[in-house]
Amino acid sequence: MPVNLPLPKAENLQPVRGVRIGTAMAGVRKAGRRDLSVWLLAEGSVVAGVFTSNRFCAAPVQVCREHLAVQPQGIRALLINTGNANAGTGADGLVRARRSCASVAQALQLSPSQVLPFSTGVIMETLPVDRIEAALPAAVAAARDDAWLEAAQAIMTTDTQPKAASRRVLIQGQAVTLTGIAKGAGMIRPNMATMLGFIATDACISAELLQRFTCEAADASFNRITIDGDTSTNDCFITVATQAAGHAPLLEASSADAQAFVAALRELAVELAQAIVRDGEGATKFISITVEGGRDEAECRLAACAIAHSPLVKTAFYASDPNLGRILAAVGYAGIGDLDQSLIDLHLGEVHVVTGGGRHPQYVEAEAARVMQAAEIEVRVHLHRGSAVSTVWTCDFSEDYVRINADYRS
Amino acid sequence: MPVNLPLPKAENLQPVRGVRIGTAMAGVRKAGRRDLSVWLLAEGSVVAGVFTSNRFCAAPVQVCREHLAVQPQGIRALLINTGNANAGTGADGLVRARRSCASVAQALQLSPSQVLPFSTGVIMETLPVDRIEAALPAAVAAARDDAWLEAAQAIMTTDTQPKAASRRVLIQGQAVTLTGIAKGAGMIRPNMATMLGFIATDACISAELLQRFTCEAADASFNRITIDGDTSTNDCFITVATQAAGHAPLLEASSADAQAFVAALRELAVELAQAIVRDGEGATKFISITVEGGRDEAECRLAACAIAHSPLVKTAFYASDPNLGRILAAVGYAGIGDLDQSLIDLHLGEVHVVTGGGRHPQYVEAEAARVMQAAEIEVRVHLHRGSAVSTVWTCDFSEDYVRINADYRS
User: Fold this and answer.
1) Of B150, B127, B146, nearest to B37 (Cα)?
2) Residue B196 pLDDT
3) Quick check: A111 contacting B, CB < 8 Å?
4) Which residues 208-267 of chain A have a CB within 8 Å of chain B?
5) What's the rounded mean pLDDT across residues B173-177?
6) Which pTM does this prediction carry?
7) What amino acid positions of A are annotated as catalytic residues?
8) Nearest Cβ partner of A358 from B90, B315, B340?
9) Residue B193: its pLDDT value, please?
10) What do you get for the CA distance between the two ends of chain B, in Å?
C-alpha cells in the first residue's frame, strides 16, 4: 500500500500539444501486459535529459547520451520498455538498443539518432529486441494525446501504482501545460535523475534553458529521494518541450516567465519524485528529513542522506519505535569531519528530542512515539554551524522490502 | 542461527597471564543477566586502542581517548557494560562515564585515568551509573583468569552467541598467548574498529608497536566487515599486552618475532571480526567479496563495500536468486569516477558470470544459483585497471534483520 498516494485519474492528466503516446504488449518479460511505449513528438520539439551517474550505466542510457549529443532539437520519438533493463549486457546490449532505435526510425521515417531508447527491469538479461519490433506497429497505431495514464502504467516494474501528474502555468497570458510520469520503487537513490521520469510541456523554450531547468528540477526532486540507497543503472529524467503553446520563447533563466515555468517544472518533478518514495518497496511511511544549520548545502545533504539510508533508522520508523539515537549515529558517520556533536538539535515533528547533543530535558518518549505512528513524519536536525539547509525524502524499511527483493524475479 | 559459527568452548580459551576478568548482574537494562565486566590488568600492562570514526561518538569513547592520551602504559582496569551505549547523552553522559571510572579507581586504589570505560546497547538513554556502582564489588570479587567465555557473554547485545578465540605464537622459544572477545550483530560498519573487541596477550611489546599493530590488525579485520552499513557510535578495539611472557620486548616492527606476533594478532582479529558477520542480525549466509585489478586498495575497497552494503545484493543472496546485475550496479555507483564497465569480470565462486561488462557466453544461471545456495559464498570482481586487491566480509539481508531492529528495544 503506497503512503498517501491517490491513484492518478486519467481526466486530471492534461494532454500536451505535440505529444502522442501509444502502448502495446510486447511480452518483453511476461505476456499480457502493456510493456512497450512509443512517444511521438511534434517536429521542432526540444528534449533535455539527465542520466544516472552509475558508471555501469545501461546500454539505452549510453545511446540516449549519444543521440542527444547529436541533435537535442531533432528528437522525434521515445521508445520505452519495461521488464528488461538492458544493463550489464556488454557490447551486445548496445547493438540491441541501437537496433530498436533503427526500427522505430524506419517505422516513422526518421533517422535512428532522432529516437531515444529507455529500458527498465531486470539487469543482465538479453533484450528481446525482436519482440519489441513485432509490437512496434501496434504501439505506433495506438498513439493518442490522452494516453498519459496508460503511459504511466506501461513503465511500471515493482511499482504498485502508476505515477502521473499535470501542472498548468500562465506564460504571457497563455496557458502552458506540463504533464509527467515516473516509475520506480526499488534501486532508488537517483544521482542525476530517477529510474525513469518523463515530463512533456508545450512551452516554447530554448534547448539550453530547458537543459538547465531540467538539471535544476532533477536536483530539487529526484536527486533528493532514496528508498534503498542503490543508484540504478538506468536512471533517466527527460523533459520534452514541443514549443506548441505559441508564446514568445523562453530564453533567459532570470525572466519572470522562465521562473514561473521552472517553478511549475520543479513542483511537478517533486510530486513525481515523492510519488516514487510513497510507493517505495514495502513502504508504510513517508519521511521528510531536513538538515539545517550546515556550512553548505552539500554537508546538509550528506547528513540527511546518511539518515535516509540507515537501515536502523528506517526499521525504527517502521516499528514506530522512537529509538532516535540511531538518527544521531547516522549524522555522526555522515562524513562531516569536524562536526561538533555537542551542538546538535533534533526535532521529530514538533517534538524537541535532542539539544546540545543529548536528550532534551523535557523530552518524553511517548510524544515521539505518537509522531512516529503517523504515515507522514518530519525529521529536523540542526547542526548549528552555518545557515545552509537541505531536505531529502525517504520511506521506512519493512519485511516487505526484503520479501519483494528476494522474490523480484520469480 | 549464526552461519558456521560454533559456540566457543571455555576450555579452548587460554588465560592470559596478567589479566583477570569478573562479571556481575547490574541490571543496566534488564535484570538477571551478567551485563557488567571488570578487567583487572597487571601492573606494567600496555594498552592500545582504535575507536569509531563516528563524530557522534559515545561518552565512554571520548573518555577512553582522554585516558589513553594521559597514560597508555598505566591503564590497570577496563569497565564494560552492555544494555546502554551512553551515546547521544551530551554533557551528562560524560559526567556519568567519568564517575564510573572514578568508582572503579576507588575500589582498586587507582587513579580514574587508569580505567577505560566501554558501553554498548541502546543510544540516547541515561547510563544508570548507580546500578553499575552497586554491582562493582561483586564483579571485582569474581575476577578470575579463566573467565573469558563469561566475559564474551557479558558484552552481548543482539548477538545470538558469544564470540571468543585464542591463539598461541612462539616468540624466542617462549609460548605467547593471545585471547580475545568481540560483540556486535547490528550497526556494524566499523570504521576504525568493531562495536567492541578486546584482545589480551602476555607478549612483551612496546606501547608504540602495540598501537601500530593494533591499527594494522583492525584494518585487516574489523574494518573489513559490514552488516548494515551503520557505523556505530561506540566502536572500540582494544589490545592489552601484559608483558608477562618474559621474552625480550618486541620493539621493531620488521623483526621476525614482531611479524610472528602481528600475524597471530591479525588472525585472531579476523576470526573475531568474521564471527560478528556470521552472527549478523538475521544473517543466513557469509559472503566474502574480493575486488581485484584496481589502481589502489582504496578503490577496490570502495567497490567491495558498495556491493556489501547494497540491500538489493543482500536480499538476492538471501533468496539464492542469481540476480547478479545488482552486483554490477553497485560496482557502477561505488564512486570510481573513470571506471570502464566494458572491462569488468565477475565470478561467483568458480562460476564466471560476467566478462567484458556483459554476461559470459558460457554462463548458465543454474550454476550460479547452486553456488548461492551454500552458506559461504565468494564474490570476485576484476576491474582490470591495476593490480590492487581488497576483500570485505558481509552477510545477507533477511526479513529477520527488519524484525530484530524493529523490535530491538521492546
Assistant:
1) B150
2) 84
3) no
4) 228-233
5) 91
6) 0.82
7) 194
8) B90
9) 42
10) 21
